[in-house]
Amino acid sequence: MTTHVSEIAQGYGAGRRRGRVARNAPPVQQTEPPKLRDAPLFATLDETTLSRLSLDAKIEIFEDAEAIFRQGDAVSHLLIVLRGHVKLSRLSLSGEETLIAMLGAGETVGAPPTCANEIHSLSAKAVGPTSALALPAGRFAGLVKESPALNAAVMQDAKNRIASLIDEIESLKGQNADERLARFLLSLCPPGEERCRFRLPYDKRLVAALLGVQQETLSRAFAKLRFYGVRTETRNVHVESVSRLADQCEHFGRAAESRGGRGGAA
After folding, report:
1. How many whole angstroms separate alpha carbon 232 and alpha carbon 157?
2. Does 98 map to a domain?
3. Mean pLDDT across the stretch 204-233?
4. Which domain holds residue 159?
5. Distance CA 17, CA 59 (A)
6. Can you give the CATH number for the domain in which 250 is found?
7. What phi and psi values does residue 148 have, to the nearest 5 degrees?
8. Among residues 172, 196, 214, which one ends one of the domains?
9. Least confident among 76-80, 83-87, 94-98
10. From residue 229, how far is each of 46, 193, 204, 238, 252 by CA, in Å?
11. Closest Cα partner for 59 from 8, 15, 13?
């Protein structure tokens, strides 16, 4: 079922559900209707271009662990995460899977299509109940050629992705596991709070893969952070002092530099 732009403006409860629905699957949380402008990729576009992009847009709802697309599939839509998380991964020739990224609300799944007959270079899978706004790839690619504003937005998106990859490479090569974990937890702390509680967005197995460390290494890093006021119970995290955690993060970085900047990803 296609959910047209007028229906999208009213909310996303009537989206199309992919695959078999689990009887006891938790519902996707809904708050306010999705808007294209809420996505960073479209933040600077004019209303006319946004309206044209919205034509034939629909909302897809995925169960936990459901495949959204697979490496080698033809690109049919540009997807923007509304709720939940999406895991991007790549399979090697030997069949080994490498986690590339974890995406959350507002992020685009894969690079925006700019021409016909593009192929996905990665696989995407839902992590938890997930919904995404799907824009037809053909219409999007056509508008990229017609709209200077959209073309500029796609180019800026590509620059941002490159910058993000550089940051990730720097993290993997220059930060040890303790610093990577501390920085990851700091990114989840609510702004302006000195003492906070939150829930990890996904399980620790995925956190370890995202940070480029073994699960045993992640467990040791969590244990070390207990001395600095960070307590965990399964996916629940309590931070006694955000500023203390930030200071310790800097200490981890200086310690890694003094040892030659080795990443410690084992």
Report:
1. 35
2. yes
3. 96
4. 5-172
5. 8
6. 1.10.10.10
7. -60, -35
8. 172
9. 94-98
10. 47, 15, 19, 8, 15
11. 15
Q: Contact at 8 Å (CB) between 108 and 134?
A: no
Quick: pLDDT tens for 151-160.
Answer: 999 999 999 9
Closest CA to 40 of 154, 167, 137, 121: 154
Whichever domain contains 118, its CATH number is: 2.60.120.10
- Nearest 5 degrees, angle CA 82-CA 213-CA 262? 125
pLDDT bin (cut points 50, 70, 90) of residue 38 is confident
Helix (H, G, I), strand (E, B) or coil at 223: helix
136 phi/psi in degrees, rounded to 5 = -55, 130
- Tell me the CA distances in angstroms from 149 to 10, 45, 100, 152, 164, one per residue in order: 26, 6, 29, 5, 22
Structure confidence by residue, pLDDT tens digits, 88-145: 999 999 989 999 999 999 999 989 999 988 999 999 999 999 999 999 999 999 999 9
State the alpha helices, DSSP H only, in the chain. 5-8, 47-54, 137-146, 148-174, 177-188, 204-211, 215-225, 242-258
Looking at residue 107, its amino acid is E
The number of folded domains in the chain is 2
